[in-house]
Amino acid sequence: MRIVSIINASSSSGFCHGQNFSYDGDQGPLHWGEEYHSCIGKYQSPINIEEHNVKNVSLSPLRLIGIDNPYQSYVTNTGHTVMLKTNESKAATLSGGPLQDNYVFEQLHFHWGENDYEGSEDLVNNHSFPMEMHAVFYKEDYKSFNEALNHSDGLAILAYLYEVSPQPNPAYEPIVRVLRDIEVMGKRKALQEPLLLESLFVPDIAKMQDYFTYFGSLTTPPCLEVARWIDFKDRQQLSHEQLAAFRDLQTPEGDKLTHNFRPVQPLEDRVVFHNIPKEQNTLSNTHHSDGHSGQRNVKIPILFVALGALVAIFLFAI
Ligand SMILES: [Zn+2]
């Protein structure tokens, strides 16, 4: 089984150093660290994001450039996920927010579960979602995805969480439609029409600046700790049928890839930041920018009211 999983048609994906793994059994996530030492590192992904334990910040706007061009794209079954890449030489770029530099789009892919109640990698307040999409960007200065993997600021990854809805989401239909053609590992298929990355990356521009961000790792071997994660709070919608189509893809062994999410890892001493868009933050700016969490901010005014009441009682008493 090991030999089969090493032979992989998607070596150009950049994740080629880490193809020898699975989501179950003796090659499952609990054993990744035996072969890939970074997988037992201190700053691993995914994590559980506790909303009461984030640090509120207001960063400069996140910017996505070049996503309104229609790109010729193709999807590949890597044996571990469905990966989408574009054929264009001028790739989309990401900058702003927590990023110091420009990042270039490399690929996007999905994580899902056996049913509609689990499948996301990051959790929010211990809640799992049926799917998560990762859009992977590498730092432009490093020239290539593979070189970027050697640097702690090498990657920026946009993460999108999904909910089940009664209606199919038309933005994902071009991808879902070709899944049946790539059920076997290594199969690759061009999308029938050019893809607008904007429809996937910015489903609602009004909610684009509302996200969590933290430092972590690739969620698959070799688990390198090189990623600035940006997890959007806005949820996207997919129908049960659209989600189910992903579960028909096959693993390197020819089994159904019913789930491909890694369990959450310890946060350790990391801080998860919550970006609050500036315009929403003007009223309570002094509280948000002083480094207290959202919960503390609520407590401070209550404390003042309580103190005021005590002083009033004291004055009446004398
Ligand atoms: Zn991923």
From TrEMBL:
<dbReference type="InterPro" id="IPR036398">
    <property type="entry name" value="CA_dom_sf"/>
</dbReference>
<keyword id="KW-0325">Glycoprotein</keyword>
<keyword id="KW-0812">Transmembrane</keyword>
<comment type="similarity">
    <text>Belongs to the alpha-carbonic anhydrase family.</text>
</comment>
<keyword id="KW-0472">Membrane</keyword>
<dbReference type="Pfam" id="PF00194">
    <property type="entry name" value="Carb_anhydrase"/>
</dbReference>
<dbReference type="InterPro" id="IPR023561">
    <property type="entry name" value="Carbonic_anhydrase_a-class"/>
</dbReference>
<dbReference type="InterPro" id="IPR001148">
    <property type="entry name" value="CA_dom"/>
</dbReference>
<keyword id="KW-1133">Transmembrane helix</keyword>
<dbReference type="GO" id="GO:0005737">
    <property type="term" value="C:cytoplasm"/>
</dbReference>
<keyword id="KW-0479">Metal-binding</keyword>
<dbReference type="GO" id="GO:0008270">
    <property type="term" value="F:zinc ion binding"/>
</dbReference>
<keyword id="KW-0862">Zinc</keyword>
<protein>
    <recommendedName>
        <fullName>carbonic anhydrase</fullName>
        <ecNumber>4.2.1.1</ecNumber>
    </recommendedName>
</protein>
<dbReference type="GO" id="GO:0004089">
    <property type="term" value="F:carbonate dehydratase activity"/>
</dbReference>
<feature type="transmembrane region" description="Helical">
    <location>
        <begin position="300"/>
        <end position="317"/>
    </location>
</feature>
<feature type="domain" description="Alpha-carbonic anhydrase">
    <location>
        <begin position="19"/>
        <end position="276"/>
    </location>
</feature>
